[in-house]
Each structure stands twice: as C-alpha cells, then as structure tokens.
Amino acid sequence: MKAQEILNQLRNKRIRWIAIVLMTIVVFTVIGCASKMTTASYYLIDYRPVARNANLTSVQKIPKRVAVKNFKIPRSFDSNRIIARYSSHQINYYRYSLWAVRPQIAVADLLTQHINTYGLFAKCQREFLDERPDYEISGEIYQIEKYQSELYTAAHLKMVFELHDYNNGNLLVKHEFDREMPIPPDNMTIFAKAVSDLVQEEAELFLFQVVTYFNTLPPDSTASIAQ
Q1: How far apart are CA 204 and CA 222, in angstroms?
Q2: pLDDT along the chain (227 residues), means of 10
Q3: E strands, the chain, where?
Q4: Domain 41-222, what architecture?
C-alpha cells in the first residue's frame, strides 16, 4: 500500500506539473498574440482653408444666409471604414484603417469653414435654428476610395457640389467632378492628404461658380437680408 501511495503521489505531482507547464504556455501565447494585435488607425479629411484666390477675395459679400447640409453617399460608402478598389466590380474594406469622421459629414464641415474663410455670405452655418436660410448647399459623394493595382495606386474622389434655393428647391449651381491623384502604395496618411487636397481644390472651383452666379444677378435680387 505504501508503494502504491507513493506512486499515486508521484503521478499527481506529475499531472500538476504538466498542468502548470501547459497553463504557462497558454498564458505566454495569449500575451504574445495580444502584443501583435493591430490597433486601428484613424484618418481625417481635413485642410486649413486659406483665402488666397483673388477671384474670391475681391468679391463683395453676398447678403444672404446659406446652410451647408451633410452630403449624400451611397450605402456601400456610408461607413467609417476606408475602401480599397481593385477593379470595377471589387472593393474591400480596410479593417484597421478608418475615417475619424464619415466623409459626408467631414466634407460639409470643411466646406462651411471654406466659405467662412472667404466671408462669401452674410451667414454660413451647418444649421439654422431661429431663422431660415436663403440657400442650401448639399451634394453627393459618389465614390471616395483608394484605387489600387499592381502598377498604380491613387486616391479617387467622385462627387458633386450643389447650391439650391431654399424656398423652392431650384438648383442654381452644380459642380461635378471625377478625379484621381496618384499616390505611393501602402501609405494611408498620404491617401487621406490626397483626398483632402482634392476636396479643397474642387471646393474652390465650386465657390467661384457660386460667386459668378450671384454676380450675374440683377443688383436688387441680392438685397439685404430681411430682418
């Protein structure tokens, strides 16, 4: 009996030792995997508007109120995940590369800042609570993506800016574009910068068209805002 008890004790110690070794291996494996986990990176569509366009700085302030609304966007792009396009019929969503602010909101915010930097309108806001705007700027982002192939990588932005009469909804100015900007592969910061540059450049063109539209109106049609 004593010999059997000794064997049982040795067996139990061996089992406990094996369990401890296995648990140690599991713990270190989990720690190793956790240290290798990729954390998400967030990117901004952003730029600092600068009033440097002489065609816009020299114009007289338009004595009207304008609201800038969120842009429309197709369901496939309505996400904070950045999209990579590989062909006409294939897109992938980056798992760890995300927009900090969804494009349809970020572009509207930037356009509002852009307009106010030039001081083009008496009031330009994202929303009006106690008063009604005279005009509304909106539009649609058709595609905003990183185009990628073995030989070519580019930031791709296809969208439209629109100015509408707030009272009757009539379309007054429309600026539509479809542009690509070549970029180095595998650099999401440069991609976000390229998209931002495209938005800034096309916003300038749109605002020039807006100013041109109001300059062609009879003087009394842009009378001061009613109190």
Answers
A1: 22
A2: 56 62 62 64 94 84 96 94 90 93 97 96 94 96 94 96 96 98 94 98 96 83 45
A3: 41-43, 62-68, 81-87, 90-99, 121-125, 135-148, 153-165, 171-182
A4: 3-Layer(aba) Sandwich (3.40)
- What is the model's pLDDT at position 227? 34
Contact (CB, 8 A) for 144 and 157: yes
Q: What pLDDT is recorded for position 196?
A: 98
Two tokens, residue 84: 């990579």
Measured in whole angstroms, how far is the alpha carbon of residue 78 from the centre of its chain? 10
Q: Could you give the angle at the alpha carbon of 22 between the alpha carbons of 20 and 28, nearest 5°? A: 100
Per the structure block, which two tokens stand in for 224?
A: 């001061």
Q: Which residue has the tokens 């009469």?
A: 165
pLDDT at site 226: 37
Give pLDDT, residue 225. Answer: 40
Domain coordinates of the chain in residue numbers?
Answer: 1-37, 41-222
d(CA 145, CA 148): 9
State the pLDDT at residue 224: 42
* Contact (CB, 8 A) for 180 and 197: no
**Three-class DSSP category at 59:** coil
Dig out the tokens for 72 from the structure: 């429309």
Q: What is the distance between the terminal CA atoms of the chain, rounded to a whole angstrom?
A: 106
